[in-house]
Write a structure and sequence with these properties.
This protein has three domains: 340 residues, TIM Barrel (Alpha-Beta Barrel), CATH 3.20.20; 105 residues, Malate synthase G - maily-beta sub-domain, CATH 2.170.170.11; 134 residues, Malate Synthase G, Chain: A, Domain 4, CATH 1.20.1220. Helices cover 44% and strands 16% of the residues. It has 25 helices and 23 strands.
Amino acid sequence: MPAYQNRASLSVAEPLARFVEERVLPDLGLTPEAFWTDAAAIFARFIPENRTLLARRDALQAQIDDWCAVDPVRAADPAAQEAFLRDIGYLVAEPDDFAITTSDVDAEIATMAGPQLVVPALNARFVLNAANARWGSLYDAFYGTDALPGTAKPGGYDAERGAQVIAAAKAFLDDAVPLNGMKWADFSGGDLPLADPGQFVGTRGNSLLFAHHGLHIEVVIDRNHAIGATDPAGIADVLLESALTTIVDLEDSVAAVDAEDKVAGYANWLGLMRGDLAESFEKGGRTVTRELAGDRVYARPNSDDLTLPGRSLLFVRNVGHLMTNPAVLFEGQEAPEGILDAILTSTIALYDLRGLGKYRNSRAGSVYIVKPKMHGPEECAFTNALFDAVEDMLGLARHTIKVGVMDEERRTSTNLAACIHAVKGRIAFINTGFLDRTGDEIHTSMRAGPMIPKAEMKASSWIKAYEDRNVRIGLKHGLSGKAQIGKGMWAAPDRMAEMVEVKIGHPMSGANTAWVPSPTAATLHAMHYHRVDVFARQREIAGEAIPPLGPLLTIPVAQGRNWTPEEIARELDNNAQGILGYVVRWIDQGVGCSKVPDIHDIGLMEDRATLRISSQHMANWLLHGVATAADIDAAFARMAAKVDAQNANDPLYRPMAGNEATSLAFQAARALVFEGVEQPSGYTEPLLHKFRAQVKAAG
């Protein structure tokens, strides 16, 4: 149990009180007394409504459970389901026609199209890598991945692979920055015969800067460089403007269960806003210190110099409405973590708003907070009111704090226009999240019947309706040119060839951003935004009808399916392996997001969203008798041995096989399935926090 300090009507855990009072407030000219008094007033005002909203979730779910259980055939009828959901108030009336009024939004969000990274806030090195991923080397991205066929030979630079990379990069330039009467491979220096001279922007030393579809491309000219020395034009690299935006995540990709963890995340956010975040680590036998990249200055002909940001524009993702955290107690109970995040992340952002940091994050003077896991418009309205109160506390103009609404819960998807309307003055982002959205789809309709296998979900009719409706509803209500419309994560960081082939579908859908798992992936995905003029696509799509609600309400139940024992075991093993592989790192090591090998030993970026799907799917099959408790326990036993083997080289790893009775990680994984039906909205956080806290308490 941490020591607490009394602050106004709050009990604040000592690490958090010390961090706020010694590191956050002094340079902002804010006194602890005033800060905690105002914070306590916000908690007192919003905690009762927060609890009411959560009770409303539970009440609606209970009604849906009963309705589905009485007549699963009726539940599978979208028309009958729509009538029922309207009757209980789950579906609300569409708002009258409106357009969002958001203003003071940075270009990276409103008028540019490009990749987006999501990075766990607790890992300073990862945070710096992501923030610095605004610019990426196309040569490096091609050379070190499978984006091009083959691999580099070991033992230093492989000239054959290098030639392949250079040819591919110059072919990209032929498409994005075409020359008049020649290819880039034929260019040997001198005057550059651009097909469109307007694409030339300026120079940085000998390097050349171009613009295409609102993004910049720097062709690095350096004849003293090992690569440039052998190139006819002296081209040493091609740099692409890559991760335009990054979400610094305090939610699904972190394991933050107490004040110590929260302070670690807040401290990294503070370092980003102050511009002084740095991290040293050992690499190749030497100490490397990573810091934020500086801005890039280019000389322009007959004009002033052009300064371009060297860093990704940063959002911060707060926690949703469900979880509480012992970092702050209100009336003796843990306070809602989402309210704490809103207060602290916004206060820290004052360093940027007041120009007190080394660099500027938002040149438009805004704070960008992504708010996840909101269920419907009343919860969006709650967030809007909360942000109003935080703005008043900090003396900020109304709607300085912008909100990103993650369309990842069924009640939000079905009421998306009303959700946008609830935050129409501050919305800067909507996106689809297939993973969490699938988890909620399973949980909401848990009693309608056994769900189709997990791998079949992406072909479900509700998925296509979900993705299409999100873009079209966003466009209808004026997000183009004012806010981001985003798409979800490519989860396989080692499968870049497939990503390059497939992920062009996201800009083609009209989304002006999409999530990628690494800075390298951001550079490769950036090529898609040169191939597709997203804002032209949005203008084309804007005239299309919004898909009806019916397909979105089509529950992915397996109608008349009888699986063989082998098929059932294969599905259970797949889910159990994914659960164990992720949970063991979360519980034992406090790692909330990492590359976890799947059952086929392919590394996938995993966070709580993937865990939610797998655990809810197993709970669903258990509930409907597709699998027995013995089947599930057998799958966990088999997969514990596999996950142990996959982590054999990790010195911090604690084996689970043979230690099932004492391994808290194994017990947590099992609880996620056997207690999955009862978990609120199928979320994994309550059980993960419970078991992680036990591990930390045991030392």
